[in-house]
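User: Let's play a game. I give you a shape written as tokens, and you guess the letters that built it. Ready? Here's round one.
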């Protein structure tokens, strides 16, 4: 091969290599930019069982949107100080976005506003009502509370004595559920009393058990899964001794709550679509990272479920984490 032919061959090789790189530039850049989004989800309780279905939705969204998600629980129930510390830690550790179920609006307002200056923050299930530009994924909790109260009134043959179990009232979703329950129950002539329930599950159980033995209430209404489970366990244990017999209604699911619903210790529960709650929270976080336009507020569906309809196909998907 002559020197000129060698030069021509090398030139053609360079032209071919250059063309290949230009034509495949997007592929190489895409590979470089394909690192997963780092998203931290900060829950508001220490319970992982109550968030099983939410985590299913989160895990599916992580696969769909190329995200790596850290799901972080608290060491104690509704601990605002710990939640703030975790929020600051995850930002410092390089999270691309934060999804948080705020313990309350008062303590979390300033830390979340500060966080928003650097990365996207999405509220899940509860929100900080005073931050107008905070994207929020939840059901219409006031409607959920009202729907549960309507079920109570429909199932009451006469005017009764109802106890509303109050817990975590600083949390926006609990406040809204409470408002919905109260507005609807006050349209009837039932006598209403209020029980203050501690955050700790054992203390909640002990408190409800004690109140059941002294109160004249014939119906209990719980506004969150932890309180609902504690109330139903207390009722079940008292039934073994031949005392206490109340109707129990509440909002939220755990495996124990579902079991007690099946046993008819619990009459009816309100259940939000927790799978969608987790899925949409991660999708919204990814959209915010990419500066896509979002609606800012996404309402998910809910259902009122009892012993008779709990195995309907739609309700099974809400109650049982592995039925999709």
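Assistant: Ready! My guess for every position:
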């Amino acid at each position: 091969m002559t020197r000129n032919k060698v030069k021509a061959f090398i030139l053609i090789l360079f032209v071919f290599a250059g063309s290949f790189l230009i034509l495949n530039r997007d592929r190489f850049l895409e590979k470089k930019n394909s690192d997963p989004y780092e998203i931290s989800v900060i829950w508001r309780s220490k319970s992982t069982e109550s968030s099983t279905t939410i985590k299913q939705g989160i895990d599916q969204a992580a696969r769909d949107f190329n995200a790596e998600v850290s799901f972080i629980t608290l060491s104690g129930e509704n601990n605002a100080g710990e939640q703030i510390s975790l929020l600051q830690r995850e930002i410092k550790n390089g999270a691309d976005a934060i999804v948080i179920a705020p313990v309350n609006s008062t303590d979390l307002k300033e830390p979340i506003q500060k966080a928003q200056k650097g990365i996207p923050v999405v509220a899940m299930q509860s929100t900080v009502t005073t931050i107008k530009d905070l994207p929020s994924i939840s059901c219409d909790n006031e409607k959920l509370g009202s729907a549960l109260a309507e079920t109570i009134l429909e199932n009451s043959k006469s005017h009764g004595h109802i106890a509303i179990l109050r817990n975590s009232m600083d949390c926006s979703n609990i406040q809204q559920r409470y408002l919905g329950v109260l507005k609807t129950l006050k349209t009837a002539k039932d006598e209403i009393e209020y029980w203050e329930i501690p955050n700790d599950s054992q203390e909640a159980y002990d408190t409800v058990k004690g109140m059941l033995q002294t109160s004249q209430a014939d119906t209990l209404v719980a506004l969150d899964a932890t309180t609902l489970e504690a109330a139903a366990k207390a009722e079940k244990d008292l039934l073994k001794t031949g005392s206490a017999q109340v109707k129990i209604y509440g909002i939220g699911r755990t495996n124990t709550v579902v079991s007690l619903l099946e046993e008819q210790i619990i009459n009816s529960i309100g259940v939000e679509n927790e799978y969608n709650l987790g899925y949409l929270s991660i999708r919204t976080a990814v959209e915010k990272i990419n500066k896509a336009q979002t609606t800012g507020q996404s309402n998910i569906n809910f259902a009122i479920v009892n012993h008779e309809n709990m195995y309907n196909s739609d309700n099974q998907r809400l109650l049982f984490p592995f039925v999709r």
